[in-house]
Input
Amino acid sequence: MALLRRETCPFYPSFRLQRYTKYHQQNQSIIEQEPEHTPTPDPSSGAAPPQAPKKGVLGTVWSVFKTTTKVLLFLVVLLYALLWIPWVQTKIGHAVADVLSSAWETEVRIDKLEITPLSNFTFHDVFIRDHDGDTLIYANYVEAQQYNVFALLWKTIEIGKLTIKDAVFKVQRRPEAEFFNIHFLIAFFENGGSTTEPRPEKFKFSLGGAQLERARVHLADTAIGTAALITCDTGYVLKHPTRGVDLIGKYVWGQKAHLSNATIHVLIFVSVPIPNVDASFWEIPVDSTIPDWNVGCEKFMLSHVDFRLTNRRTGIQMDDTRTLDFANLHFEDVNLDTDTFRLQHEVFTGHVRNLSGA
Output
C-alpha cells in the first residue's frame, strides 16, 4: 500500500487547521477562568491602597473571645506543668508559710511541699509557734487528699481525707491568761481571714475523714486546774454519710472513730485564777463566740488504752471507804466499744457494748 505524502494528500491542510483551532479554544478557556488581577497601585502616584472590609461587632467580639481563650488555656497548661516541678513546689510552700506568718504574727514554717495537681497536697515538717514562743502545732507529715480548690472562693477549706503523722499539738491556757494559746487562730477564721476587723463570712473547715499516726496531744487549762497528755499510735475517723466535720465551728460527726495503743494521763492540780475574772468553771469567758462542741459518732472504740488520773489538788477530802483511789487512778489495757457516742453541752452519752480493762 503506497504511503500518503503531505504534498500529495488533499486533507493535510484541513487537519492542520483543526488542530490549531482546538488548541486555541483550550487556551482561551483557561485564560477566562483565571481571576482578574488587581494591579498594585504605585505609591508615587498618590493613590490610596484598597481597604480591607471592616469586621462587624460580632466579629470583633468573637476575635477577642478566641484570643482570650487561647491565652487562658496556655496559662492553665503552663501552671499545671509548673506545679509538677519540685523546686516550684518548695517555693510555693515557703511563700504560704511567709503569708501565714505575717497574718498570724508568729512563726510558721513549711520545710517542703509536694503537690499532685487536682489530687492532693503533702506538707513536710510543718511548724506553728504560739504567741508565747512555745510550740502550738508540729507535724512531720501532713497529707490533704481530695481537696476542693474552688471551695476557697466561698471561704471553705474542704478536704476529703487528712493524714497526719508524727505530730505534736499543745493547746493550753497559761497562768493568769484569759485565752488559750490557739485563740489567735480561732479569731482569724472567725473574722473571715482578718486579724483586725470582723467580716460577715467566717471560714469553714470541712473534713471528710482523718487518720492519725504517732501523735501527742497536750491539753492544759490552769484556770480550772486540769491538764491531759494523750499519746497514740494510730487513730482514725471515717466520714459520716450525711454529716461532716467543721473544726472551726466545733462540729465533728463521723461514722466510726477508733483510737488504739494510746496513753491518757489526766492531771488535776490547783487552779490559777485569772485576774479580774471569776475563776469558776462555768463563768469563765468562753474562748470563742462559736457554740460548744457538738461531737457525734455512730461507733466509738478504744483498743489497748492506758488511762491514769493523778490528783494533786489540795484541800479535797477523800472518801477512804471507796475501793477506787481517785487520788491516783490507773486502768491498763482499756478496751471500749460504744454505739451512738455523743458529746454535747459538755456531757458524754452513748450505749456501751463492751468495756474491759485491768
